[in-house]
Amino acid sequence: MKKALFLLPLLLLLLRAVAQQNDLHISGTVTDSLGKAIPDAIVSLVRLRDNAGLLFTATDLHGNFLVDSKELFRPQTLAIKVNAAGFLKQQTILTASMAQLKFRMLSVADVHTLPGVIVTGKQRPIVQKGDTLSYDAAHFTDRNDRHLKDIIQKLPGIEVGENGVIKYQGKAINKFYIEGDNLLDDRYTIATENINVADVDKVQVIEHNQHVKMLNGIVPSDRAAINILLKNKSKLKFLNTIEASGGLPATYNLEAKSMAFKTKYKAINTAKLNNSGSDYSLETGVSGLQGPEGISKDRVLYNRSKLFSANNLLKVTPYTAIKINATYNKENQQTNHQLTSTYYLPGSDSIFYKELNQEQYNAGSLNLNIALDINSPKNYLSSATNFSRNNNTNSGSTYTGNSPITQNSSATTTRFSNTLSGYLMIRKMHIINYENSFAYSVNPQLLILTPGILQNVLNDSIPYLQTNQYQQLKNLSNTSQVAYNRVFQNWVLGLTTGLFLQSQQLQSAATLTQQSAQTTVPEGFENAVNWRKNELFAQATLTYNGYKSKLILGVPVSWQHYRYYNDFVATNQDKGTRLVFQPSLHWEYKTGKENTVYLDYTLANKTAGVQQIYGGAIISGYRSFASYETPYLMSRAHTFSGGFDYKRVIEAFFATINLTFAPTKNYFLYSTTLQNNMTLVKALPIINYSQAAGTTARVSKYIFALNTTVAVDAALSATKTQLLQNEQLFRVVSVVKTTGLQVTPTVLKWLQFTINGKYMQYTTASEQTGFLQQEVRQWNLHSGLTLYPLNRFSFNFTNNYYQSLHRGSSAVRSLFLDSYLQYKFEKKSLLIRLACTNIANVRSYEMIDVGTNSINTISYHLRPRTISLMTSFDF
């Protein structure tokens, strides 16, 4: 025994010596062709099998560098790559005998083309190097395309939603870069809506994008990023554009843009105003009045909109940036629509109501964000401060009979937040992370309804003049966390701990103005809720980042303490503690060089907040009010998903399929009481179960002969839920089927077609006796024809056909026709367009919306035929 104890230290020393032999210690110098040192050259340790960067460093003032890694070193598996601005890249494969390297870089200016050599051939539209796909913009640009979004939505493997969200292989991107810089954060529609196609060189997709450079190759990501590369000529100057249009009946649209995409400075600054039906919700994130599904919002929206946006990024060093994003938006909007709703209950009962709505919306919003980012292979620090203020008023008249009900609401939301995040790496093995997030917001609201509503509920069935509903929510929260990660070659073990603090106050009161001008307060319609929540959380994370497989296993545990009480509802109070366990798993495996299969699992425990537990009733409209007292633990959901990504880059073919199943245990059930003049919603502590399952698939292919992309997608989803309406409990199964087709073939040089079609079928059914099964089918077909009779002259004609068919009813159809003539001048990129929208002067559009056991028919009043003349030019 003593001998074994004596030999133990020797054994440990021997193991340490063996481990040190596997350590990698490579130093060297980087000079130019004259032997002068090149400082700040990027030196990376590259794994040859997948060209992945493992470690990054930079040369000092004397051109020296040192690569010191715990990577398990095997000859012919790693390489050192050197990259310096103005010099050609160099790479050397490491051997066991190497310890000191010397790189003599060749300047780009020293490289001369051999005389008499001519290289011919077409550039491939899509090229993949490592995890980066590069789409050549020229191959996906048509002569009438104007903005970056026109290119992106035609790229195979990529789709752009109606809300502007970009997805790659079915998953939303995690970052949007312009020349490698994150100028816009999640408001990247500012770029897609404003950057001209003439300035775009390439669109890159960075698969498994890790935004923190020092974690690249260490902590993987399951999401991709988009990087936009500009043409060289577009990076040397400011890009200024003016666009103006006017038409009959009195419409205008004015835009001024100033953009810069230089190495040290990037900017997208815009000023816009219009009354032609276009709001700026995609660029601001602030939505106003909602339009109908299926057709463009500018067909129904009467507006006067203004937007001023400033987005500027200054690179202090190659890895340090200061960013300022500011927007001011002013909206005056109006829509007119008629709504008919029918709720079908088991048996012969049904609830029916009809209303005519005239809505006006006025809003002014300001958003300011200031950020500092240091993101290098050795350091990471990010600090962002945000301030936003949004004032809006909404007024309108609702006709349910001969006399209207006037609804006027106003709200002011003020929000301030700050986030701070930093990473520190020690000896390439130890990573320490600190994050803190602070937020404060307040949003007073007032709803006024004239004449007074719900007399039988609020005022003993006595008519009165006016109903006033006031509410305000204050929120103060702070999250702090510290994480430690230990790197073991391809494995990373992470430990995180932190504290979340939240304080909320909800105040509300309904007051009634009587015929005598006296003010009264109805019983049960006041709230003064104080909410506190403290959460201590910890998480263990295991990550594996290999060539063929990637694994992220998270095991978070949190101890939550909550307490709330309502000054006006004595029984509305509770406090308690809960231990919450929410594991997650992501695994993916490369079945081939370009094919990946993946699996995901999450367990989510949804807990209540102040807006789910208030006990006093709050009025939300002329016929509806709610009172929620949900349990703290609202639901527990398991989500299983898996999929397969398939691509052949050389053939420009992309395909993906995903399956999801999510069983949920709910600890409460909403009870809805429906009457012809009232809707009341309450939360009851009834345990029930729901299920959701679905599959999505998408295939896209670039056809070289036609210079076009064909995309086909399909989705099937089913949900099973329980409903409690008018004291009747029943289970409902809903099924949604959708298919879509997008193709833009260029048949001849002077002829181009556009086809974009969607089909949706929605059905609901129940085993309950007397339940009336619902089914609606909708078709949406957009087609267009573009002729180029002359080099710079074009004629476009488009039609949009919509059809809705509800079981037992006749089909509802609409057809919109639009056209324009356009001529492009060579100098100053001058463009002139004469357009006519809604040629047939269609003045109404009807859509059918089906719920679990309801059908809504909505008829919108449309803008008239418009003829406009537009010009756009650069200066």
- Please write the CATH class name of the domain at 126-236: Mainly Beta
The CATH homology group name of the domain at 126-236: TonB-dependent receptor, plug domain
Average pLDDT taken over every residue: 88
Q: Give unreliable regions as ranges.
A: 1-22, 71-75, 111-121
Tell me what the CATH architecture of the domain at 126-236 is.
Beta Complex
As for the CATH topology of the domain at 126-236, it is Ferric Hydroxamate Uptake Protein, Chain A, domain 1
Oligomer: single chain
Shape: globular
Signal peptide: 1-19
InterPro entries: CarboxyPept-like_regulatory (IPR008969)
Biased composition (Low complexity): 391-403
Keywords: Signal
Short account of what is shown:
The protein is mainly beta. Helices cover 5% and strands 62% of the residues.
How does this model look, in words?
There is one protein chain. By secondary structure, the chain is mainly β. Among the domains are: 20-110, Carboxypeptidase-like, regulatory domain (Immunoglobulin-like, Sandwich); 126-236, Ferric Hydroxamate Uptake Protein, Chain A, domain 1, CATH 2.170.130.10. It is 5% helix and 62% strand. It contains six helices and 50 strands. It has a 35-stranded mixed β-sheet that branches. Strands 8-9-14-15-13 form a five-stranded mixed β-sheet, with no helix packed on it. A four-stranded antiparallel β-sheet has the order 3-2-5-6, with no helix packed on it. The radius of gyration is 31 Å and the shape is globular. It starts with a helix and ends with a strand. The model is unreliable at 1-22, 71-75 and 111-121 (pLDDT under 50). Residues 391-403 have a biased composition (Low complexity). InterPro entries: CarboxyPept-like_regulatory. Residues 391-411 are annotated as: Disordered. This is Outer membrane protein beta-barrel domain-containing protein. Keywords: Signal.
